Amino acid sequence: DVKVTQSSRYLVKRTGEKVFLECVQDMDHENMFWYRQDPGLGLRLIYFSYDVKMKEKGDIPEGYSVSREKKERFSLILESASTNQTSMYLCASSLSGLVMQETQYFGPGTRLLVL
Amino acid sequence: QKEVEQNSGPLSVPEGAIASLNCTYSDRVSQSFFWYRQYSGKSPELIMSIYSNGDKEDGRFTAQLNKASQYVSLLIRDSQPSDSATYLCAVLPGRRALTFGSGTRLQVQP
């Protein structure tokens, strides 16, 4: 079974803090993704990576950065947390970009509260 | 116009009935289509994927795709209370990352 793990289930931070969210997958997947999910807005893509040290902006990258130094690990960084970044953050991975291999598997999510 | 549109619901059906969930998408180059189920407080899990026009059946679930109309649907036969969840439609447009709809909440009444 594919396993995607996230470092924290719940996180409380203060405005202005630097926040790191870690994601690890154990299936040698090429692609990794970070989404945030807010009521009524669905899942919105923040960043994704299709190879080590490669990254692409998603639909809402502002205020975020990412790091992928190893294939299995993809980190989301909030440089200076703000209250509008309070959300559920979901990490996902997929095998490759080829058709029929792009099924995304999700981690359990991190619920972040910024005070 | 949103790239992937779904009725937010809730869609309420009685136990044993057929639940029909619909999704439209705007990007004509989309090749792959997915339905995810998400229980409250949990992460999405894949139910079905479909790539060709027509129907694809898996147990009580049937996905239907019509690329000409840019329409994909999910039918759940013999609905059970355990099917109560939010169903997310996702498409793969001209990039490697999925685009999700905002989801339809399904309630199956015992």
Description:
Chain A is an all-beta fold. Chain A has strands at 4-6, 10-13, 19-25, 31-38, 42-49, 56-57, 64-70, 73-78, 87-94, 105-106, 110-114. In chain A, strands 2, 4, 5, 6, 9, 10 and 11 form a seven-stranded mixed beta sheet that branches. Chain A has a four-stranded antiparallel beta sheet with strand order 1-3-8-7, with no helix packed on it. In chain A, a hairpin with a 6-residue loop joins strand 5 (42-49) and strand 6 (56-57). The N and C termini of chain A lie far apart (37 Å). By secondary structure, chain B is an all-beta fold. In chain B, 0% of the residues lie in helices and 54% in strands. Chain B contains no helices and eleven strands. In chain B, the strands form two sheets. In chain B, strands 2, 4, 5, 9, 10 and 11 form a six-stranded mixed beta sheet that branches. In chain B, strands 1-3-8-7-6 form a five-stranded antiparallel beta sheet, with no helix packed on it. Chain B is globular and about 40 Å long. The interface between A and B is medium-sized, with 26 and 23 residues.
Average pLDDT over all residues of chain A: 92
Number of alpha- plus pi-helical segments of chain B? 0
Strands of chain A, count: 11
Q: State the secondary-structure class of chain A.
A: mainly beta
**Could you state the oligomeric state of the chains shown?**
heterodimer
| Share of β-strand residues of chain B | over 45%
- Greatest interface and its participating residue counts: A-B, 26 and 23 residues
How far from one another are the termini of chain A? 37 Å
